[in-house]
Write a structure and sequence with these properties.
The chain is of the alpha/beta class. The protein has nine helices and eight strands. It has a single domain (3-255), classed as Metal-dependent hydrolases (TIM Barrel), CATH 3.20.20. It has helices at residues 16-30, 49-63, 81-93, 114-122, 145-154, 169-176, 195-203, 219-227, 233-255, and strands at residues 3-7, 34-38, 70-76, 99-102, 127-129, 160-162, 183-185, 208-209. The two termini are 12 Å apart. The structure holds zinc ion.
Length: 259
Amino acid sequence: MIWDVHAHLPAEGRTPEEQMTILLRFMDRMGIDRVCVMMGTPFLTDPTPEQLRKQNDQVLAAISHHHDRAFGFVYVSTHYPDASLRELERCVKDGPMVGVKLWVAKRCSAAEIDPIIAKATELKAPILQHSWFKANGNLPGESTPLDVVDLAKRHPKAPLICGHTGGDWELGIRAIRSTSTLICETGGFDPTAGCVEMAVRELGADRILFGSDVPGRSFASQLAKVQGADIPADAKKKILGENLKRMLDPILKAKGMKP
Ligand SMILES: [Zn+2]
């Protein structure tokens, strides 16, 4: 069972529906059972409320006939907390989406994020916050794992995921291990040997989720981090699917959706 917590729609395809068909073909080829799909096109680092809504509409269209294979995560922005709360209501509370994606518009240590996190927690929706430690400097609103740790300490009950484990995973894992609740995600950075082994050693296999960040990365390169890791078989099972299933279980139950 392989569930991917971090996927985007491929560039090929004229409509979200066509993009989803292409993504499903790649999933079938690589043995991926489920993906969490988030954000759309164009690529924007600081989308307006209108643009957020449009991108969420693309994901809603993409997943609409594939609820057995694809979950939707609503794209929100701390730059627009009120509009984000409306999107959470529209897409998660009243719609089919089951998670939240926050990217680089504003650092997640900013207090303006708090109502968004509180609402997502109330809805039992896992929150995937992008994070990176960039050697050449982060974007102005781009969070590092230290910002996500700060957020996790302010919201100890929130189902928070530290996206990309900070990219520079040796630093990311060290930051994340200062909390007991924060979950890390394996996608997006180069498939360097040892990353998942260190995460298992420092955080435990229960706190790691497989993510690919397709199509920015390939399923193959990102799966290899876990499948090729020198860790026990039951740890691989947890990371590849069981942990995400457990994390989504409360919201799926609350919404009456089949796991
Ligand atoms: Zn991504």
